[in-house]
């Protein structure tokens, strides 16, 4: 018995999304295209903002950071998921599993904080426009971004510590396609109720608190729009509706997955796919298709590239 207790799990086995090889092939093609579009779309947004001087404002500075986070967030889980579609036995080493869940929570928490900051930015710009240049200057914006990364790191370290402090001596099968804290701690060889409650109080509190802050900000903005001109209301509504769509798509799955104690539902995998694969693709689509300024900047950047190529030839 002592020998069994001292045996440490060295790898985990994923059950994946399905065991049907036809569906696995279909998922591989679909998610490969989705991941490629996610990378290209977010990189395009970053490049457009960097090379367009008129977009060097706090709102677009935060948007470029959101695109970077989405690239990193999807890259934590999607490549390993795609690899699993091609393998009969889907495994990950213990150390890589811990690294995956650390970076998953780092980028997810960073995005939660960033979306909250973006809501505050819109609140200041619409409700107190005369103070905007002072309250949201670039120096403050850089500090806010540094703070969100620091907060995300602290949160992720806490989640990782709560996970690795538990003993793992078997079983080692994870009913998912990536390593996350809830499914991993279920495999621990000890009672995890207290740990589960600590994890929920950490992740759940952050998600719910930031979501309530976001809803409050947008409610105040909507109320204040009554005092704006018709054109001002149209521009503010276009910007805020895009932000709120991103918030709903990201916070909904987060709250669903991380705000409940040791319970799981059959729909969890579907929600996880939406949260880790689909949402990072939707963000660039929402911000480009609904933002005339970004589309105009992309068009001008493409025209400058064409002129540059012609001049070189």
TrEMBL record:
<dbReference type="InterPro" id="IPR050427">
    <property type="entry name" value="Olfactory_Receptors"/>
</dbReference>
<dbReference type="InterPro" id="IPR000725">
    <property type="entry name" value="Olfact_rcpt"/>
</dbReference>
<keyword id="KW-0675">Receptor</keyword>
<protein>
    <recommendedName>
        <fullName>Olfactory receptor</fullName>
    </recommendedName>
</protein>
<keyword id="KW-0716">Sensory transduction</keyword>
<dbReference type="InterPro" id="IPR000276">
    <property type="entry name" value="GPCR_Rhodpsn"/>
</dbReference>
<feature type="domain" description="G-protein coupled receptors family 1 profile">
    <location>
        <begin position="41"/>
        <end position="287"/>
    </location>
</feature>
<keyword id="KW-0807">Transducer</keyword>
<dbReference type="InterPro" id="IPR017452">
    <property type="entry name" value="GPCR_Rhodpsn_7TM"/>
</dbReference>
<comment type="function">
    <text>Putative odorant or sperm cell receptor.</text>
</comment>
<keyword id="KW-0552">Olfaction</keyword>
<feature type="transmembrane region" description="Helical">
    <location>
        <begin position="237"/>
        <end position="258"/>
    </location>
</feature>
<dbReference type="GO" id="GO:0004930">
    <property type="term" value="F:G protein-coupled receptor activity"/>
</dbReference>
<feature type="transmembrane region" description="Helical">
    <location>
        <begin position="140"/>
        <end position="158"/>
    </location>
</feature>
<dbReference type="GO" id="GO:0004984">
    <property type="term" value="F:olfactory receptor activity"/>
</dbReference>
<feature type="transmembrane region" description="Helical">
    <location>
        <begin position="270"/>
        <end position="289"/>
    </location>
</feature>
<feature type="transmembrane region" description="Helical">
    <location>
        <begin position="206"/>
        <end position="225"/>
    </location>
</feature>
<keyword id="KW-0472">Membrane</keyword>
<keyword id="KW-1133">Transmembrane helix</keyword>
<dbReference type="Pfam" id="PF13853">
    <property type="entry name" value="7tm_4"/>
</dbReference>
<keyword id="KW-0812">Transmembrane</keyword>
<keyword id="KW-0297">G-protein coupled receptor</keyword>
<keyword id="KW-1003">Cell membrane</keyword>
<dbReference type="GO" id="GO:0005886">
    <property type="term" value="C:plasma membrane"/>
</dbReference>
<comment type="similarity">
    <text>Belongs to the G-protein coupled receptor 1 family.</text>
</comment>
<feature type="transmembrane region" description="Helical">
    <location>
        <begin position="98"/>
        <end position="120"/>
    </location>
</feature>
<feature type="transmembrane region" description="Helical">
    <location>
        <begin position="25"/>
        <end position="52"/>
    </location>
</feature>
């Amino acid at each position: 018995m002592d020998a069994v207790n001292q045996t440490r799990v060295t790898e985990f086995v994923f059950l994946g999304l399905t065991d049907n090889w036809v569906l696995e092939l279909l998922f591989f093609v679909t998610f490969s295209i989705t991941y490629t579009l996610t990378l290209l779309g977010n990189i395009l947004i970053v490049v457009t903002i960097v090379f367009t001087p008129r977009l060097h404002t706090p709102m677009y500075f935060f948007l470029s950071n959101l695109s970077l986070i989405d690239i990193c967030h999807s890259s934590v889980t999607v490549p390993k998921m795609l690899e699993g579609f091609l393998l009969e036995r889907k495994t990950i080493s213990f150390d890589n599993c811990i690294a995956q869940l650390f970076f998953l929570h780092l980028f997810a928490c960073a995005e939660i904080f960033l979306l909250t900051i973006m809501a505050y930015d819109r609140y200041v710009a619409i409700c107190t426009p005369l103070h905007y240049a002072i309250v949201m200057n670039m120096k403050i914006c850089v500090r806010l971004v540094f703070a969100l990364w620091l907060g995300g790191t602290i949160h992720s370290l806490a989640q990782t510590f709560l996970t690795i402090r538990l003993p793992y001596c078997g079983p080692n099968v994870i009913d998912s396609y990536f390593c996350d804290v809830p499914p991993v701690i279920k495999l621990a060889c000890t009672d995890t109720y207290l740990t589960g409650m600590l994890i929920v109080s950490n992740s759940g509190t952050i998600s719910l608190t930031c979501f309530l802050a976001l809803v409050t900000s947008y409610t105040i903005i909507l109320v204040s729009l009554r005092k704006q001109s018709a054109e001002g209301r149209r521009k503010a509504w276009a910007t805020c509706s895009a932000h709120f769509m991103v918030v709903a798509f990201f916070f909904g799955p987060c709250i669903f997955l991380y705000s409940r104690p040791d319970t799981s539902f059959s729909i969890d995998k579907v929600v996880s796919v939406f949260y880790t694969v689909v949402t990072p693709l939707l963000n660039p689509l929402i911000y480009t298709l609904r933002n005339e300024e970004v589309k105009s900047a992309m068009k001008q950047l493409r025209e400058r590239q064409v002129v540059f190529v012609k001049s070189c030839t």
